[in-house]
Amino acid sequence: MDENILKLKKLVSESSNIVFFGGAGVSTESGIPDFRSEQGIYNTVKNFGYPPEQILSHSFFMKNPEKFYDFYRSTMIYENAKPNLAHLRLAKLEKQGKLKAIVTQNIDGLHQLAGSKTVYELHGSIHRNYCMKCGKFYPLSTITESKGVPQCKECGGTIKPDVVLYEEGLDEEIINNSIKAIKKADMLIVGGTSLNVYPAASFVNYYDGNKLILINKSKTPYDRYADLLIHDSIGKVFNEIIE
Ligand SMILES: [Zn+2]
Q1: Is 231 annotated as a binding residue?
Q2: Which of 47, 178, 198, 207 is deepest in the core (most CB within 10 A)?
Q3: Is residue 133 part of a domain?
């Protein structure tokens, strides 16, 4: 076994309050493309007439919900995606009482599908959708089984995915819970994120311990702060350190 993997395995066995902070790279191994890499949505999706960042903005949703849903249904929802080894091993680590929280930038719900209980979804979830008029919640199937702009069965209002769009702020309670968990953690594992985009990097700053683990295929601006740095696939690493 690789020396860094052995080191990580030992550190995990010595820790009792682990927090995992994850990004798109956690889900790419489940077949969900990320945004900014070469194979990512921002580079591969070009036929919608507007840049993805614009379509996924609050003002665009309000002005042009039909076009938003065209894009959203075809590029943001992966209904058949299954949790991969990273999701499954993290759920196991929580069951063992070692992992206390997952903070994720992903909106796919795969951590919960793998069995994880304490998951702070910074950017919301495709599995929650709500009526903008009366607040009634709807499951993902309401979006996938409808055409055009989905409407509330109760009041006819427009249904919006509970995902954070550009121009929208993050949920304060989720931010606070995430920060609290990271501050208390004896070990912070950051995985599958390039840490280039706000607010990812700012969360890592709240960690005060000496076991900051960075697992990412490519380099990140935080590499030099890591107590242990592993440039590899996150699923593979977790599979090797957790039986
Ligand atoms: Zn309604």
Answers
A1: no
A2: 178
A3: no
